[in-house]
Amino acid sequence: MKREEKAKKKRGVRQVLTPYLYLLPSFLLMVLMVFLPIITVFYRSMQKFSKAGKIKGYAGFDNFDKVLGSSKFMGVFQNTVIWTLAVVLISTLIGIIIGMVLNTEFRGRKLVRAVVVFPWATSLIIQASVWKFIINTDHGALNALLLKLGLIDSARNFTSSPAAWFAWEIWVGIFVTVPFVSFCTLSGLQSIDSALYEAASIDGANFTQKTFRITLPLIKPSLTVATVLNIIYVFNSFPIIWAMTKGDPASKTDTLVTYLYKLAFINGENGQAAAVSVLSFLFLCIVSAIYMAWYGKGGDNA
Q: Is 119 in contact with 178 (CB distance < 8 Å)?
């Protein structure tokens, strides 16, 4: 009996420990790849650095004071907010519409789906470089097309100001983000039972009522995931801005990611760059928490 009891205890211990042993590699990977870098950035944001990048000593909040007191920072932060909001909101709206179109039956649907996913599957550096060539004043494809169609008499400068460059960067951001939202929407739409639409039709519901009473509420979980990921990805997006303008002129088209890159690798201000990283991280945490709290409240009300 004692042996049986001991064997049962061992089996019980194994059953308790086995799930944790399976999770241990993932936990260690998260610690090494996520938590450790975050702690390192927080630590470096409060250190003094030499121009060679070596830590000279404790700086307290001096790096944060320099960053927040900089004349460029607020403009860069404003650019980042505009960039993120414009790309996420517009791409979400367009992505929902395209997702609903792709969910309907029509000839060549598979080909259209493949074409739609192409901008998202292509490297952002390549996409940005292609669009930079398209809008070039001297030999860009856009001017050549408009001239051939007779819509303009001479080549136009589509990037005559920093605001114009920034608008084009936002357009490229939307262009490469729409496919992700479209397929998140499509995955949500394909999980909806068609019987719900049939019942709504019998009750006399029109297209608008079906969309707002059935479609949007049921794809809300998919859209929530897509939106949160988009906020994080777009906020931290580096290739498009850097490939098209490098944040110039005078940081007028910089976002926080390109700005901190310049601080760290061009100006040699590693402490200030780390401080910008910390501020960006905290801002994203706050925005994501507010969005998830709002979504949870909306879900409870529903």
A: yes
pLDDT of residue 5: 67
29-49 pLDDT tens trace: 988 888 898 999 999 999 998
**pTM, rounded to two decimals:** 0.85
Domain with CATH 1.10.3720.10 in the chain: 60-301
Condensed to tens digits (0 to 9), the pLDDT of residues 162-207 reads 999 999 999 999 999 999 999 889 888 888 888 888 888 888 888 8
Considering the domain 60-301 in this protein, what is its CATH number?
1.10.3720.10
Is there a cis peptide before residue 249, judged by omega within 30 degrees of 0?
A: yes
pLDDT of 8 above 80: no
Q: How many residues does the chain have?
A: 302
